[in-house]
Amino acid sequence: MIRVVNAIYDLFSSVRFGIVLLVLLFIFMSVGSAGIVYPVHPNLFHPDAWVHQQMRQWRAFEMTEFEWFHWWPFNALIAMIATTLVVTTLRRIPFRVVNLGVWTIHTGVIVLIVGSFIYFQTKVEGDAPVARRKVVLTVQGVEGTVELLAAMGATATIGSGDSAMTIEVAEIDPEWELRSGSDAGDLSYSVKLLVTTATDRFIRQLIANHPQYTEDILFTDDPAQPMKRAIKERGQALVESRLTASLDYESQQYFYVRNDLTKAWALYLRSKGSAMWIERPMEGVPLYNDSISSHGDVFESPSTTAAPLHPMHVLVPAVAANDPCADVTFSIDGYLRYAQTKTRLLSGGAQSPFAPAASIEVRGAEGAQTTYQLMAFDPERSSGDGGLIRMVALTSEEQLAKLQGVSQIRCVIPAANIDVIEPVRLPAEGDQDAFMPIGGAESGYGFRVIAAQDELPIGGKTTSVLIIELKTPTTTIRRWVFDEPSLTRDVPANDGGHGAPIPPDPSVQVEYQRGAGRAILTLAVGPGENQLRIVTAVGNTAAKVQSVSVDESITLPAGLSLRVTSYLPRARIETRPVAVPESQRIRDARELFAQVLVNVPGSSSRWMEFSPYAVDDARFALRRHPYHPSTVTLADGREIELLFSRRRIPLNTDIALEEFVLTSHEGGYTGEGGSIRDYTSLVRFRDASTGGEWSDPTAVSVNSPIEHNGLWYFQAQWDPPEPASQQDRGSRGLNYTVLGVGNRRGVQTQLAGCIIAVMGMLYAFYVKPVIIRRRTARAKAVAVSRPVQANAAVQS
Amino acid sequence: MNRFDARFDARFDSLVVRAQRLLVCSIGLAMIALAGIALAGNARGAADTQSAGAFSNQVDLSPLDSVAVQTEGRLKSFSSFAQSQMAYVSGPRRINGQSPAFTYLDMLLRGEAYKDADVIFVKGTTVRAPIADVLVRVDPSLSQRMNSFMSTGLISPSLLSRPEVEPVLDALQSDLLRTAKAMDAVRAARTVMTPEFLLDRLRVVPAAAIDPNQRWSSMRDLMMLAADDPSAAKVAGINTDPIVGIDEGSQRAAAAAWKSLVEGWTNGDVAATNQALSQLASTLRAMNPSMYPDASRLQWESWYFANGNLVWIWLVYALSVILLLLGLVYRWRRATLMGLAVFGAAFLMQTAALALRWWISSRWPNSNMFEAVTTAVWFGGCVAVLLEVVFRGRAAAGMFALASGCASAIALMAAHFLPVQLNAQISNMMPVLHDVWLYIHTNVIIFSYCLIFMAAVSAVMYLVYRVCGGPAVFARVGGTGALEVVGASALRGEKLGEVLDGVTMLLMKLAFVLLWTGIVMGAIWADHSWGRPWGWDPKEVFALNTFVVFAVLVHVRYRVKDKGFWTAVLAVIGAAVMLFNWIVINFIITGLHSYA
């Protein structure tokens, strides 16, 4: 026994063993960091002969860099190096002046290892998104407040029926210049809300930190000045006093753990209707390798061979005391690193209900090709390209006529005994005066169209309106003619329609019969189940109807051609993910496109897309940060909302973003990366240490973090401006910041170790040789007088 | 053997030595001459085409050298700006041997002429091959042109716009891993070479206000002041009114100069063009002289870029290396002295180039790959000069210059021949680099990297010495002992091995301390920049790996008998790991450090 201990003791005091350990360390670090390269082809000079792979990402390891470097073999290696260092130093290196250097270096390394142990044991790191403001809304007569993020397009509807009010964030200007009072010239954050009530539409502008400047802005019919301030128009700042809107900080209480350092997947759940997400950690879900249990779980592209199956079954039990369904254990039965959700139309069989669906391929003049999958009865899938192409199911031929019909008005003038239908023609530019006669030129009646707006969303449904002027022998009436006759009303000219509704003058009755609307292409099914027709309304020509069969190519005006590639009268929709091929993945997307297959006991399993942050609801989702909650029904009928995200840790403070400042180089921000000088978030904290009040703003910018309650805050990401596009109305950016959050216990110890080691190196390399040389010189001098002893001195 | 024979032998020996010296000298000189011819050949090739196009030869663009352009948050001289823009189009290639400034204006004013010219640079043969294949398939007459495309990478916009090529480009674009980046560059090239883009980017009209955040205006914004009928421009959305805040008279003068430049250029009228150019340059400067950069700075910037960032200094370094090697191998003192003189001259030139770049960019050059590489070897030069002074007249004389000369010659040569990887453009630094630690950490690290390389040079020489039969010797007293030995005679026999090992050890120790310190400083910066001092980023890991190799070296040297050999082997391995970190990790395995 003692011999074994002695042997180990000898081993750990061997420099050779130390060298072996250092070589092992070198290999371990190289393989973990750069990966390995190996030949897969006998001709080693063949361009594809060598393969580079990250070994730590292999299925057997499944490790991030952090995990590889905190794996037990690495820890063991470091522990052995530390032991060897201590034992060898104590046993083999006499504590003398010449050896001070090596003692110091070794001490420094030990201190560094201790510091690193403390550091990595307690290290947490993540990121916290902080949005700039939220909009707080209250409506008189409706209980409670409604909040939404001040982000382009965020929408809320308050109340119901006729008193419903829809509020949408229509414009955000992060650098709004104040024009009044002592603040004139200052820049502030302005949010414009588009408020739509049953009878009215206007803009309410809110300015951060200046509630006194809240005001309404009205639409006018004057093209030279399409908007006017309510205060100038009506003498009061607010036209809708029932609505109170204000801006407030959107505080953040959590930071989300970085998943690419150490895997930290989490499943969030809450009872339907509850606001608070409860976290369940998902231990054992991989990061790099796809795992599916059955080929039916995903759509596989026919061109590639089926991926091998790697079944997984990770249980996700409740951990929190307030878990809404503590008795239910979910499981994760599949994982995809990078996938896209696709829908395919599948035949439902003869028994399933009539649900017509078709795939339509449209080819442009330049060869560009677009495929649409449309389902007539599904409002979300019945049209494509913003309504330009659609699919409808007809029950009668009459409906077809309506589809191809041009918009028209029916005018009834009892006094002149006129009842005619006139086509609607929009005025040509500059042609102001031409009234189209009603019932012949001699009648003295006429109309002209000022504007037409189809499919306006008003009060939760869509309506179309035609603004016309009617000429009678005695007067001119301006009338808003809705396709819903009860809404039709007369308006005084230049009022903008914001006064109280005036019932339409009964001497002239007008009905608006909307035609094909915006849709250029309509695929009409029916009345027979397999009867397909295409209604085209390209250009100004009258709509054209053509019968079409599957796979028949149809030439349309403007160089377009169309083909119905498949038609299913009884279709059902299947949604599954498709793994994106390696070569088409965005390299720095991290886990953004990950999906897990969640098995819900008593219900079917479902794929869930990753959401980086567990925000309260979709109204608080940040731009460029997807949010995909999903509702499931448990066996006992309870409805639970699920979210696939990362673990989060409380900040122990509220944090708010006062302002985000982008500073630029010469010439201002031009959109080019080279013009950006720095990003600065001005943040405020609120907790016990700040007395429960918001602290004064503190600047966090690149390379200059701040500390609060033991956590450090770093500038990490920003919200860049984006131009509007077809799908998106764009954003002026600067609406939120993402702060890196982390702790740093043990850093001082690490630094101390490093500095001690440096001092040791300087001593060993630059002081020790001088000492030895002096001793040698002294020994030589002595040797001249006493040659025999000199040799001994040199030997030492 | 009688005395005569002995004398004859001695003479014969010295004759042989002289003949050898002569041979090596002439080989060295021939190499330099060849390199020189190769470079001059480039220039001559350009000159030939220029004389063919008399116009491009006769137009005097020198007034534009002192014109400033605001681009990507900087003010550049027009010539260096044109070079950076043309690099988007033709990459490292020059079009028809014209100066980038000429090409810029020619593309802007006679854009049609470039529609079918091979001017767009496509990077990588994996991208070129499928494009060339499809074009040859549809049009076999293009095979000659496609051969040259495969080697130069230059192709014309009209060929790329062919309908048959489009699906190929789409396929290349969809491979995000391998080819999408190259396709992005092609798309950027096609955008940049449109006259509208070139005109819009010509932001030469200084801002009216003293506010540096004010964007400069483009020539497009005021050129209509000289138009006969501005109404057409209004429809196209081009500004027809004078820019507010700037003297209207000078705006009109600039517009008129621009108009006559356009006319002169398109008509091939040299005299009118030259006059318009100098007029335009002077009116632009006069618009807001207080905002305008110093003319001499702009001219120096143009000169610096016109002369290839002075990386041709590698030739001078190469010459000094040859002379120093001659001196070392043949113990030829005069060659060593000449080598030292040439090295000194090369170092002074490089110092001047560095200082010039520092002045032009108004920051210490250490923020991109080109600057890191060239500044690193300049540090090596400083150390070599210092040590040559310290060890003058000693056995180690010339060795440090030799090591540093090798490092500098290779680094500057790399910068010369790999202008894409070592891009010499001056651009603004990313916000994360704006920190005092950039200057401390980066410089210490690159300094240590250069020392590691220099140590490897002397280690290789030691290994050569051993291969040629030198005995297993090593430097005593930690390496420096051997360097104390006085006199050139020490270079004979086993002392040479000791000196070489001593040089390796001296440089290695410096590198060891600096590398460790540099890594620690990087950790300090990372701690407050990224939130963690150590993130196992590949570049960090391989810097540490380099250090581990040297730690192994120190301990192996302590244990083994043949200290010199193992020191040399490990010094070379250390340098290999360092180069792996700088080349492979940087360009293939990118991590957080990918901007440097």
Radius of gyration of chain A over alpha carbons? 37 Å
Number of separate domains of chain B: 4
Count of strand segments of chain A: 46
Specify the number of helices of chain A.
9
- On the 0-100 scale, what is the average pLDDT of chain A? 85
What share of the residues of chain B lie within helices?
55-70%
- Assembly form of the protein: heterodimer
Compute the separation of the termini of chain A in Å: 36 Å
The number of helices of chain B is 24
Largest sheet of chain B: 2 strands, antiparallel
Element order of chain B: H for helix, E for strand = HHEEHHEHHEHHHHHHHHHHHHHHHHHH
Low-confidence stretches of chain B: 40-52
**Rg of chain B, alpha carbons:** 29 Å
Tally of domains of chain A = 7
- Helical percent range of chain A? 10-25%
- Going across the major beta sheet of chain A, what is the strand order? 43-42-41-13-3-46-45-44
Instruction: Trace the largest sheet of chain B across and list its strands.
Output: 1-2
Beta-strand level of the residues of chain B, as a percent range? under 5%
What would your notes on this structure say?
The complex is a heterodimer of chains A (796) and B (596). By secondary structure, chain A is α+β, with helices and mostly antiparallel strands. Chain A folds into seven domains: 2-92, no CATH class; 131-248, no CATH class; 265-344 and 573-645, no CATH class; 354-401 and 518-569, no CATH class; 407-513, no CATH class; 649-747, no CATH class; 752-795. Chain A is 18% helix and 36% strand. Chain B is built from 24 helices and four strands. Chain B starts with a helix and ends in a 9-residue tail after the last helix. Residues 40-52 of chain B have low confidence and may be disordered. In chain B, the strands form two sheets. In chain B, strands 1-2 form a two-stranded antiparallel sheet. A two-stranded antiparallel ribbon of chain B has the order 3-4. The interface between A and B is large, with 71 and 68 residues.
